[in-house]
Amino acid sequence: MGGMDILLFHSVYGLRPAVHAAATRLRASGHQVHVPDLFEGQTADSAEEGREILEKLGRDELLRRAVVAAAPHSDKGLVYAGFSWGGSVAQTLALGDARARGLLLLHGTSDIAEDASVDDLPVQLHVASPDPFESDDWLNAWYLRMQRIGADVEVHRYPGAGHLYTDPGLPDHDEQAAEQTWRVALGFLETL
């Protein structure tokens, strides 16, 4: 199978080296990867600082930027992907794009619109267990709701890993969990 067109969204930390490294890994497996900088060059040293940038820019503006970033590529049938907060952005766009080919969520999910509906959209979530931002109760409810709207969801949990465990530049990093995540995620992309 040919590679996918992937739109990869950064976390509240901004467009950090780990996001570029993930894009490089995906490209090495034959995928076209687009990495928009929704924070326009701003990066954060902590999640709190990242949330301040997010709030200052405004969620509506950031979603508008994400839609603009997707527009030139969406006619090809994108796979939406994202890290943590970027996963919530990816989920929002994927559920609103009838041409979406897949959704790859790393460390984050989002609320699901009441009127959301998809046709067997393949979705894969990788998340720490436990995760301070993605509680078990939330994830169970999210999973059931995603199934109800027509998504084909699989969830991979990584006991003992920190929230953003795929980022080697953060204290959360867990090399073993990160490598397993990438093996599974690349396999998922091959099936699309």
Written description of the protein model:
- It is built from six helices and six strands.
- The chain is of the alpha/beta class.
- It has a six-stranded parallel beta sheet with strand order 2-1-3-4-5-6, with helices on both faces.
- α5 (136-148) links the parallel β5 (122-129) and β6 (152-159).
- The longest helix is centred in the last third of the chain and has 16 residues, at 175-190.
- 40% of the residues are buried.
Features:
single chain; 192 residues; alpha/beta; Rossmann fold; six-stranded parallel beta sheet; 6 helices; 6 strands
Give a nutshell description of this structure:
The protein contains six helices and six strands.
